[in-house]
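mind reviewing this fold:
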Amino acid sequence: MSRELWLLRHGKSDRNLAIDDFDRPLKKRGKCDAERMGTWLQQQQLMPDRIISSPAKRAVATAKLVHKVIAVEGLGIMQDKRLYQEGFERLKTVLAECPSEARRVLLVGHNPELEDLLISLVGTANLPDADKLLPTAALARLIMPDDWSHLAAGCARLLSITCAKSLPEAGIE
């Protein structure tokens, strides 16, 4: 069985509130898109072994909404501050700490770190030509090497990028 990394950017947040960036909540659309992505994962029978989220309010809310829909028994959400504004090399450090038995890891975080990690792992020549690779509530699936701690540039292969806004409304087929 191959090892996969799933990069999920948080849902649309409310930028108009006069609060710290870390505390920005999801907008209604962001909540709906996170539920849509969870429904799609469930329909595709894509269940993570490990969920790691940025502790920022909008990322945790996204992770919780996806988690609620996929309902994998015994699977919790780990929060790691290194997924918030510390650069994509720190994300690789988080991945290096994943146990070898974790075959499907879902990282819920932010741009530019997620896009930078995606570009580093896959290489620009192997990515779609898009202004924004990971808009809000988009999920990139990558085939990864067998060891989470050896993530050299170009070591992964992109399977797909799925945007929540291209999916049907949650609960509607």
Summary: The beta strands are 3-9, 50-53, 77-79, 104-109, 138-144, 157-163. The CA atoms of residues 121 and 153 lie 5 Å apart. The two ends are 29 Å apart (CA to CA).
